[in-house]
Amino acid sequence: MGIMSTAALEGFRVCVLGTLAGVALAVPVGRALNSLPFGVSSTDALTFGVVILLMLTVGSAASLFPARRAARLEPIQVLRDE
Q1: pLDDT (tens digit, 9 = 90+) per residue, 58-67?
Q2: Residue 36, CA distances (Å) to 8, 15, 30, 54 in order
């Protein structure tokens, strides 16, 4: 695996773990906030699906920029700077 794919996969892994933690916390918090008048139920599957896709897309895109930067670096230069 190359540097870019390794960095991108690491970023995607963090996104997936954060999304799973967010969903696990969103269900009980959503039920607690069910009385608020937003017009969407606290367990609306479409809303959860859209939010999950949005978070994974944004997180993956955010991890691609550092991955591209890391792929362009010369390893000897990075070692020399450290």
Answers
A1: 888 888 888 7
A2: 38, 29, 10, 24
